[in-house]
Amino acid sequence: MSDDVDTLRTECLAALAEAQDQRGWDAIRVAFLGKSGRLTGLLKQLGRMDAEERKTRGAQLNRLRDELTRAIEERGREIEAAALDARLIAERVDVTLPVVETPRGGIHPVSQAVEEITAIFGAMGFTVAEGPDIETDWHNFSALNTPEHHSARTDHDTFYLPSKEGEGARVLRTQTSGVQIRTMLGQEPPIRIIAPGRTYRADHDATHSPMFHQCEGLVVDRGITLGHLKGTLIEFLRVFFGKPELPVRFRASYFPFTEPSMEVDIGWSRKTGEIGGGDDWLEVLGSGMVHPRVLANCGLDPKEWQGFAFGMGIERLSMLKNGIPDLRSFYESDVRWLRHYGTDPLAPALLHEGV
Ligand code: DAH
Prior knowledge:
Elements: H1 3-18, H2 22-33, H3 38-45, H4 51-90, H5 109-123, E1 127-128, E2 134-136, H6 137-140, H7 151-155, E3 160-161, E4 170-172, H8 178-186, E5 191-200, E6 211-221, H9 226-240, E7 248-255, E8 258-268, E9 280-290, H10 292-297, E10 306-313, H11 314-322, H12 335-341
Parallel strand pairs: 1-5
Antiparallel strand pairs: 2-4, 3-4, 5-6, 6-10, 7-8, 8-9, 9-10
Helix pairs in contact: 1-2, 1-4, 2-4, 5-11
Protein name: Phenylalanine--tRNA ligase alpha subunit
EC number: 6.1.1.20
Subunit structure: Tetramer of two alpha and two beta subunits.
């Protein structure tokens, strides 16, 4: 083999051995095999040779080209693998490092109660409906069978808003009951909804806040009876308070939008404050059979459709369940309070674990 071929091979292999990275390697590839590379230069000279010489020289150069191509490719793979190893080492994550404890927030008791209520009624086939906080007087009162001069309008200490030109009066909703109206107007029975949300009344003391939360419930179908109402609410209260034997009492009452109407009490011990204890009762929600006039206001024939409805104060339920003494503390945004009464954000209300 001629000297120049030997030199070329030696130089190329030496250069490859020294190449440390992709760029150096690429420069060698171009210098030897590229269009104006050294080996390419030698191959170009073949054209000027006579046939015999070209044959031996050609074979020699082709062998060299194959050999160098293989060597270059192999070194390329080595450099690539080394680069990957270096990256893996540089970017290594030490999974054995201890976790840095950062303070974790808590779910506010109101949100937690809404989640629990939703989980329980969800399991009974209810869906969640919503309505606006700024409600028309008609949805909040009139359609719910509360006439213009009825005392309920003043009982509620309503926040009235300036009415727009050509429109009826608007209020900050005093109850979530207006969502019943919106739902009946918006969808055909059968209906099974709960409507949690904010409500507003001009009232402020240890058990009243100008903004608080309620959850409404409505079922409309054929053949709905008081038995359905009682069964549903007893089941709900027993699961919510985690007491399968919780005593529940239905007491005749009055709401304009239900007939008959009932307040619902749960057993409570005045001595120990324990829920489910037996010497007294605590009122926890209002309920009743949907008044035929309310059904008619929403275009439903009361002879064909019956329903029951209920409404509860979310803070009140949360206070009873968690032993929170003062309603105002819900809105003071005191982190210590939240840390105490808040629940773990990574442990959502799931029925199968008991809410
Ligand atoms: N809206 C009532 C209130 O704010 C609660 C209520 C009572 C809702 C009876 C109902 C119901 O749907 O049937 O006091």
